[in-house]
Amino acid sequence: MKKILLIILAILIFAMMFTACSNKNSLSTVGEIEGDPQEVPLEVDEEGELEIEDIPKEIDLQALRPNEAGEIMVLMYHHIREPEAEWSRTPDNFRRDLQELYENGYRPISLVDYATGSINTEVGYTPVVLTLDDGNQNNFNMIQNNQGDWDIDPDSAVGILVDFHEKHPDFPLEATFFINGGTPFGQAEWVEYKLNYIVEKGMDIGNHTYTHINFTNTTAEKIQEELGRLNNFVKQYLPEYEVNTLALPFGSKPKDTSLAPFLVEGEYEGEKYQHIAILEVGWDPYKSPFDKAFDPSRIRRVRASETKVDGVGIYDWMKALDQGGRLRYISDGDANTVTVPEKYRDKLLEEIEDKNIRNYTLD
Fold first, then answer.
1. Is residue 349 part of a domain?
2. pLDDT, tens digit (0-9, with 9 covering 90-100), for 107-140
3. 243 close to 206: Cβ distance less than 8 angstroms
4. Domain NodB homology, which positions (predicted)?
5. Closest CA to 254 of 218, 279, 297
6. 185 and 255 share a domain?
7. How far apart are CA 326 and CA 97, in angstroms?
8. Would you call the peptide bond into 261 cis, given omega within 30 degrees of 0 as the criterion?
9. Start-to-end C-alpha separation, the chain
């Protein structure tokens, strides 16, 4: 009997030692990944479960001087072709624009990410949004090579963007192509391929109305037809894709302001549409998405041109943003945190959903 009791006691002691070792190993693992578990701030969610609080990434604030209250350029292109003109950028000048943006610390983000404040630009860099209107063939052209195969025209906008990204992987392949109905990008036999290619590459398709209508004098029915028809047209080729951005043709809006809500959402032939960003023509950089005055239905754009821009073209604004004539957005590299110098804190919303707000004092 005594022998049996000793065996049972030995088993209990062994079990206790094993449990202690297991717990120690678990805490050690947490400590290695998350830091000392006793120092990680914890909070209880609505269901009574503990959550680890998001902690802003540590960066050298004085050296990098992030300012996410600054302005962002939404660049507006139309044709990419020869010769250079008011609404045309030559292929070489388009390449130069991308190179200048790259060398001056700009990195493309999607229009959707800008409008929703989902900015994950590398720390110390400035987001920029690239947009191209009208779905011109020179935006995305297919050409036949000497072997009889078809290639993307290297002098088209898509060809240039893809090539630049391949040479500079840290310059994201982000752009929104605002198209009309019919035969976007020309070449009817290639429409499906082109639309799918753009989306598969991570770029976007935007609504520019079906017929490029001027909205100044129109009706609720016509607005919904123009926007809904284009939306339904795209779904023929991309049934799972959501067209949720709009560039206003001619920058036009209905004189009857009661019709403005139909630019945001509506319905046509049983299919609903909704736009989370509406772009004007505009002449200057627009506000941070965290700015109190930011309005995603009134986003202004910058003419990506050097012809007849009256001092408000792409290079005029790059100079102003670089020299302090306008407040430049500088990313903190943390999509979950909005960082601003203390003196600009009043520009921001009091609270920003799902974001930490970090203020600091500039030396």
1. no
2. 999 999 999 999 999 999 999 999 999 999 999 9
3. yes
4. 173-257
5. 218
6. yes
7. 20
8. no
9. 79
